[in-house]
Amino acid sequence: MSKINLQTNPSLASSLSSGGVHERWRLIKDAAARYGVIAGGLGIIFAIALIFFYLLYVVYPLFMSATAQSVNQYDVPEIAMGKTILLGIEEQNEVAARFTDTGQVVFFEIGTGKSILTEAIKIPAGSTIVSFAQGSPVSEGAVIYGLSDGKAIIVKHQYKVTYPNNQKLITPSLVYPMGEAPLVINDAGAALEKVAVIIGGNSSTIVAKTAEKIRLSHFEKEKSLFSDEAALTRTDAVLNYSATDVVEILIDKDEHNMYLLNKTGQLGLFDITDKTTPKLTYEQHIVEAGQTVTSTAFLNGDLSLMIGDSSGLVSQWSKVRDKLNQFAMQKIRVFKVSNKAVITINPEQRRKGFMTVDADGVLGIYHSTSERQMIQENLSQGPVAAAISPRANAVLVQTDAGKMNYWTVDNKHPEVSLRSIWQEVWYESYPKPDYIWQSSSANSDFEPKYSLTPLVFGTLKAAFYAMLVAMPLALMGAIYTAYFMTPKMRQYVKPTIELMGALPTVILGFLAGLWLAPLIEEYLAGLFTLFMLVPLAVILFAFVWQFCPKVILQKLPEGFEAAILVPIIILSAWFAISISVPLESYLFHGTLRDWFKNELGIGYDQRNALVVGIAMGFAVIPTIFSIAEDAIFSVPKHLTVGSLALGATTWQTMINVVLLTASPGIFSAVMIGLGRAVGETMIVLMATGNTPVMDLSIFQGLRTLAANIAVEMPESAVDSTHYRVLFLAALVLFMFTFVFNTLAEIIRQRLREKYSSL
User: Fold this and answer.
1) Cα dist. 434→154, 321, 422 in Å?
2) Which CATH number fits domain 458-723: 1.25.40, 1.10.1040, 1.10.3720, 2.40.170?
3) pLDDT for residue 8
């Protein structure tokens, strides 16, 4: 064998050298592509993980425990001026007020106890203080003193913020909203043993109890047409109710309801809408036998009454309608505070939370809706008085040892718990526990309702009806296109259907909400007729087609028989819609919607799950069709040819060979379509009423997780509870798709392993 001398053959040497360079360059490109694909895959995994941990980072504070930090303990300011009957804190947590039983008010620095101002209530000579009560927070710090001579005097503590020399200065003061002169409540001069007051913008109501009677006095401001001065008109009424055992009087902020409580827990509810004739509307015993009422307070909004008893329980009572549509007081939840009597209940002014202190000095902060105990601290001394700041971020407690304890509180998201998110909750004024999403309201007394259950239900409901529409059409279309359709017709049909996927979902939602929804409402019977008439028309046409003359059949290009069905389907659908109105009149003596409502009790909303199913199904069809068609078309030809050669029919080959082999791809198509339906936003946003209700009816609206996030995220304050709950909804949606896609991948791999031997 002769050797080739590269030195004597330069052209061959150049050729080999050039081939080596190309080979090395190809290897470099292969390596770059391989590492690029790996980097891209790892980047996607990293991005998904980053999204997950960011969602978790935003959501985590919702479930963090609240904390309380003792800031300072100091002697009670101006203790010689009398026993404390009320503590108050201004909004900035810098100045506090101490009201005493001698009619003195001491303003002091909350952090140090340093006295700022001392002012005496203008009580007439010869009168003594017999009773005292605090007005509702809407009364802006109003308190009332009941005097021994049947008179009452009302004062407000208020705080003016100024900035002299660019330094914040808070100046406390007292004002007399009803005048400095005491108001005569009892003409006979009997001592006012119990008092209650509500100071409104144009009206005020005072209720006072003497030894024998309970009297209601209402004051109304009436402005003259010719003067800016307002005349004060007064209305008095005496309640027909035994005053002997009454220990608590409470009036709601709207001045519509009044509650009287005796020591043993007998509650009397009065309707005082007409101030001249208060009516006793309801009576009930509200504590266990043998227990006594030790403290009472309204929860923020004055819709619920919090009752503390001698056994350490705090129960929440709300006015709801019973089965006879009559109002009744209903105990909606109970909190076990301790084994000792609950001495004081202080509600938060802006949320549905409250603070309790028991006889042993155990302080607790709770939230009613979430039923969470946020904080529990042992003061180690008996309490005398307690106050929680307007922002619920500070607590002031005076003990019987003559000490004032100042605490700061970190309690940002008490409204949320696993129970309030996923279980039924009994909200104020609701007749029973329910799943409710209602995150905001124009009223500051609103009770937020953060149940994600109706949103998850709406998401699954929308996806179910969308898949119910999309799966049969997409999969049957994919089977026919990939296996039965001629290549020439397939090259038109497949791109056309895939082009449907490029339509913006906002356009589909717009058409569904403004065109399709009214159309279905008007021709509802025609829609149901269409589902029956179109299949019958196709079957009938197929039956007639076999008798068609061969001359016509031969002129039709092979594989284009299905194209003739298009006008048949359009005509049968048009006919079904055309007979809709006469059919409804003949069969249902009106509209089908009215028949559903009157006969079956099924309501009809114009934008409902039926509209969403059709519109979103239309959007999902291209995704499922494209992936499933590719999977079926990619089945190796030798499998189908071998099956046919062994005597199987075309349909037997399709069912037993092609579908089984393509089943992993078909399953992937369905799961990807489901993921698209679950995450769809604009169609469900525009084609439903966005009502977060849990109703299986196809004629009712819904709200999905994705649509809810899109609607409410722009209006939520950053880092608020609402904001974080929306991120929690996003996390639930993320986990939902992740779990389903993971399960789908596991099933797909098993199907691939099972049928890979075919």
Assistant:
1) 42, 15, 10
2) 1.10.3720
3) 60
